[in-house]
Specification:
Blueprint lengths: L4 H12 L6 E4 L4 H12 L20 E4 L4 E4 L5 H12 L7 E6 L2 E6 L30
Parallel strand pairs: 1-3
Antiparallel strand pairs: 2-3, 4-5
Bound molecules: zinc ion.
């Protein structure tokens, strides 16, 4: 079955919006405790009314997202290569990814992936089922 393109964007944006306007720091960055302290003092550590475009929180080997305060903590220094690793890891179970390219100013990195897996998809929408249920239309696999 053909995968609908707009669903690719939605699936990717779901996790990527955690990086949008976010502060991204390495886990051992000396600024991290200071920033969290300021967030606590300002009362925005656990959310703010203006912070509405938040993706679901995630925690992987490579990064942890705290969408309530627009913070992503990474294991390694964030480079375009690192961003590819993080994003591939977040999306590899939802999409069959052939290539990821990231650019940042003059830096660019690209990686090709050959992993192909059988992803159980909704026969009506084409998007990946979550525990046998389509998150979009509610289709249930019998
Ligand atoms: Zn569906």
């Amino acid at each position: 079955m053909v995968f609908p393109c707009n669903e690719i964007r939605k699936t990717a944006w779901d996790v990527l919006q955690n990086f949008d306007h976010a502060l991204i720091l390495r886990e051992d960055d000396p600024l991290l405790p200071a920033v969290l302290e300021v967030y606590e003092k300002q009362g925005i550590r656990h959310g703010a009314p203006q912070n509405t475009m938040t993706g679901p929180a995630f925690k992987t080997e490579l990064a942890t997202a705290y969408p309530e305060c627009r913070l992503v903590v990474t294991k390694e220094t964030l480079t375009v290569e690192g961003m590819i690793k993080i994003v591939y890891d977040l999306l590899k179970d939802k999409l069959n990814i052939a290539k990821i390219t990231f650019t940042s100013g003059m830096n660019a990195a690209s990686a090709d992936f050959s992993t192909r897996q059988e992803i159980k998809r909704c026969p009506l929408c084409g998007i990946a089922l979550q525990d046998g249920v389509c998150p979009k239309c509610g289709y249930r696999k019998h």
